[in-house]
Amino acid sequence: MNKFLVSLALGASLLSSPAWAADDSLYKAFGEKPGLVALMDDFMVGLIANERTKSFFEKSNQQRVKEQLVEQLCSLSGGPCQYKGGDMKTVHDGMGVNKTHFNALVEVLQRSMDKRGIAFSAQNKMLALLAPMNRDIIEPAQ
Ligand code: HEM
Questions:
Q1: At the fourth CATH level, which superfamily is domain 18-137?
Q2: Are 108 and 48 in contact (CB under 8 A)?
Q3: Is there an atom of ligand 1 within 6 Å of 27 CB?
């Protein structure tokens, strides 16, 4: 390869993934915004169908929750979104969410991710980003 081609290749690779750009590979693995919207639609159906989570979500504004979750997961996965919803502690305060409820929600999410064919490694990365939030969501046992 002559020098010109080398610099062309280098330039192209810098343009496609500049060092300062956020890593959006996880966002892409989830199918970007349309993928997240479809995932959250299925997730909400699952949450309403699940005995352990249904009572929480039946009475919530499901459309808003789905939209906020799309923004949150988009932002968490390196996508071009900004989550502007409430902080996890305030949003879930007083709901009485316990470990069992939290685990049930994670299982429902896993099933939805499976259904959408999201790679297992990407599923695990997303779950690893969500898991620490349990501290703000689960209420201490009385
Ligand atoms: C990592 C786990 C979780 C995440 C990332 C999460 C995230 C969110 C987000 C982004 C919202 C919308 C906030 C807003 O409207 O500003 C929300 C609302 C809500 N979440 Fe969660 N959540 C989680 C776990 C749970 C669990 C385990 C339950 C109960 C089983 C739950 C029940 C609810 C309910 C009922 C609402 C609606 C509140 C309302 O009507 O205002 N969440 N959650």
A1: Globins (1.10.490.10)
A2: no
A3: no
